[in-house]
Amino acid sequence: MVAVVVIHRRTARRAVVNDGRAGSMAASAMRCRMPGRCVLVPGDAVTDGVTFAEVVRREGVTVLNIVPSVFRRLLSAVIDNDLHLPDLRQVIFGGEAIDPDDIRRWWVSSTAPRATLHSMYGITE
Residue 82: CB partners within 8 Å, gap ≥ 6? Predict the structure, then answer.
C-alpha cells in the first residue's frame, strides 16, 4: 500500500511510499499518525507510475517520502507522459541508495522544478 497523508492548514502535505520493506513501513506508519487525512492507494498503483503521479498531483502532495526503486518507476512515467507535479516541494529518499542518473533525469524533466531532493539513506540503515 501507499499512504498519502495530507496535513491540513499551514503544515506540509506528505506522501509516503511503502513498498513492503521494513524501513519504509515504519516511516509510513509514523506519517499516518500525523494530523490530517490518510488516503490508502492500492499496491498496484505503486507499480504504475502514471497512477501514482495522478494521486500525488490530485492530493496536492508537497513532501514525498519514497524509496529509490519506486521513485524510478514514478520518474519514468512522468517523463514518458510529460506529467508535472507542481505542488511537490520535497522528495525524501530512504531505504536504499539513489542512482545519480535518476537525479539527473529528474532535473532535466522539470516535473517539479521547485522540489528539493534529500537522501536519507544510511542514516538509520
Answer: none
